[in-house]
Amino acid sequence: MTDVVRVIRQSQGTEDSISLQQQREKTRALAENLDADLIDTVDLNNHSGFSLFRKDPGDERLDSHPEVQKMIEGLRAGQWDYLIAHDDTRIARDEFYSVIQYAALQGDCEFQFVSDVPDDRLTFRIQRIVETETKAKEIQKSKAAVEHRREQGYHHGSPPFGLRFDANGEYLVKDMDEWPTVERVFTLREEGLSYRDISDKVKVISKSGVGKIVRKNREMYLKRMDSDHPAVSTAE
Question: With contact defined as beta carbons under 8 Å apart, do 7 and 90 qualify?
Answer without folding.
Answer: yes
